[in-house]
Amino acid sequence: MGWSIRIDERSPVPIYEQIAEQVRQHVRTGRAAPGLQLPSVRDLAGHLAVNPLTIARAYVDLERGGFVVTRVGRGTFVAPEPPVMPEAERRRELERRVRQFVRENRWLIRSGDELRGMVEESL
For 62-86, what is the mean pLDDT? Predict the structure, then answer.
């Protein structure tokens, strides 16, 4: 697995939701490619030191959302085509990430024009 999952035990977000959200992000960004087999419930539970039912709940949530498919006796795999994010949700997520980026990198940003220019170049 070329990516990791981290649990924040101080977070008010339930652990299964933290896991599911991180897997969704890995799928959306391409770090978890279509067809990639996820760790078994037992293996991931052991690795993260959480109850296997927590992992199972995250996997069920991911399957309901269309991010993974489970093949009985074979495992859980990233779906061939991840679901399309609704436009309003996509916009909220992008805004959240931009605000977070600016907040975390405020000390590097000299001006809005400089940042806009760098974003334009990157696109």
Answer: 91
